Q: What sequence folds into this?
């Protein structure tokens, strides 16, 4: 058996016990929450398109729903009752074309714009999906939530590349390209494992959807909320 493949199998076998399914209790650490959601409607297609891999869902103040599908590279628009309105988006590297889908937030509805955070590029569309503009942003930042159409909050999703250091939550302005650190956090340590192989010390990050705790960030009424997804309050 290939030596690298054998090391990979051994590593996975040794590290899986470190990863436990995250289960939050019904009672949060602070405050009171009601998670008794009720079903309004269901849908598995938009017009002639069948949903393949829904990546992000956002809603607009008027109730319209925007759904990003990472298989079709399209963004679908539904009304508040789930009726299909239209779709937009195209895979490519031209103006307004989507190059990359990745884990985490990429679709945002802010003010009068629908914003898709592509790799190093923000694509701006109007509420009907008509392309408006592209704006570049630094490759070491990941938009997590927008305070306005020109200002977003960035933070690492996992401990990847932090190397034991604190993660930084930053505010970034796409107009003047200025960034400001507004908070720091410690990564979830069990999301990484260290191995010594042939005299080398390596730290590997393993991410499993629904299992590995991730950094979650949101904002409402001028307040910014953040925390690891293995705990809530």
A:
């Amino acid at each position: 058996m290939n030596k690298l493949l054998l090391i990979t199998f051994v590593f996975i076998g040794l590290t899986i016990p470190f990863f436990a399914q995250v289960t939050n209790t019904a009672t949060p650490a602070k405050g009171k929450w009601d998670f008794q959601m009720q079903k309004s409607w269901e849908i598995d297609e938009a017009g002639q398109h069948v949903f393949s891999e829904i990546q992000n869902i956002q809603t607009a103040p008027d109730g319209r729903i925007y759904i990003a599908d990472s298989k079709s590279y399209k963004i679908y628009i539904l009304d508040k009752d789930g009726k299909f309105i239209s779709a937009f988006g195209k895979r490519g590297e031209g103006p307004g074309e989507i190059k990359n889908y990745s884990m985490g937030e990429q679709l945002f509805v802010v003010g009068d714009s629908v914003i898709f955070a592509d790799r190093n590029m923000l694509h701006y569309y109007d509420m009907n999906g008509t392309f408006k503009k592209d704006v570049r942003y630094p490759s070491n930042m990941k938009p997590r939530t927008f305070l306005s159409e020109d200002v977003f909050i960035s933070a690492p999703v996992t401990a990847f590349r932090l190397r034991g250091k604190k993660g930084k939550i930053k505010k970034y302005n796409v107009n003047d390209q200025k960034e400001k650190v507004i908070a720091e956090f410690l990564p979830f340590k069990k999301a990484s494992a260290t191995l010594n192989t042939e005299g080398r010390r390596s730290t590997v990050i393993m991410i499993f959807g629904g299992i590995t705790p991730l950094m979650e960030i949101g904002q409402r009424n001028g307040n910014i909320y953040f925390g690891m997804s293995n705990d809530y309050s």
